[in-house]
Amino acid sequence: MLLFWQMQNKNDEYFMHAALRQARKALQNNEVPVGAVIVHNGRIIARGWNEREKKQDPCRHAEIAAIQRAARALGNWRLLDCALYVTLEPCAMCAGAIVLARIPRVIYAAADPKAGACGSVFNILAEKKLNHHPAVISGVLADEAGQMLKDFFRAARKNEVERISLPPRAVASHLTSRPLRSLSSSQNSLTAKYSLSKSSSTQ
Questions:
Q1: What is the DSSP letter of 182?
Q2: What angle do CA 63, 185, 16 make, to 5 degrees?
Q3: pTM (2 d.p.)
Q4: Is there a contact between 33 and 62 (Cβ–Cβ < 8 Å)?
Q5: CA-derived radius of gyration, the chain
Q6: Are 35 and 48 a contacting pair, CB within 8 Å?
Q7: What Å distances lie between residue 6 and 21, 143, 162, CA to CA?
Q8: Directed axis angle between helix 142-165 and helix 168-176, to 10°?
Q9: Is 89 helix (H, G, I), strand (E, B) or coil?
Q10: Which of 117, 162, 166, 195 has CA 20 to 30 A from 35's CA?
């Protein structure tokens, strides 16, 4: 039994590393770095990362993108025998999608104390009135995922403070002198820190 759990933990870490690579893709696109993968019979069948800014879609969370791709890959909206790995605790919307997709196993890295719906704020996946209750494992590679998020928001706050501290005329010049979605120097440094080249693994 101990050997089984050790092997399961190694598998969970392996697939969570794959989800972290998706989070780095989000980071490269100046999105909140959250990534997800869906595994079926030991093989990744779908990947997703946060694309809310790119798509201007409030529903384009990493989990939603991965769930939609997995359903297409299997030709079935019921994602039975699948596991979802995501770098941040799913929100209420994503937890609802997990229930509707009948995903039996959910593994997440960092907890979300402000919007998490797997125990932090709500516990939708354990709601007795619902007809599906996936097994949930939390904290897999939580430090790495959490640090990536902290670094992103720290850089974002620094960029906002720098913008606000400029005189109004300078702010207008600052905003019009560069593309609207360009990265600040601090965010550029952060992207380099978490560059995909950091990992030699294939996507």
A1: P
A2: 25
A3: 0.80
A4: no
A5: 18
A6: yes
A7: 23, 19, 47
A8: 120
A9: coil
A10: 162
